[in-house]
Design brief:
two-stranded antiparallel sheet; about 70 residues; single chain; 2 helices; S16 Ribosomal Protein, Chain: A; about 30% strand
């Protein structure tokens, strides 16, 4: 998502067998690194629920989750 030279990312839950930019199960937040301060919105309840169900966050999403306090 976003535009040329203006990135904007959705934080999603996706099946590992789906393509990176393909189908996803649920949007649980978004990340906009361009604005100052950086805009990071994550639905903590949904994120924790998916982690309890066994979802594996990527390294980048794990770092973002630590910033908002989803994981310690």
């Amino acid at each position: 998502m976003g535009a040329k030279k203006r990135p904007f990312y959705r934080v999603v839950v996706a099946d590992s067998r789906a393509p990176r930019d393909g189908r996803f199960i649920e949007i649980i937040g978004h990340y906009n690194p361009i604005v100052d301060p950086v805009e990071l919105v994550v639905d903590k309840e949904k994120a924790q629920d998916w982690l309890k169900k066994g979802a594996q966050p990527s390294d980048t999403v794990k770092r973002l989750f630590k910033q908002v306090g989803v994981i310690a």
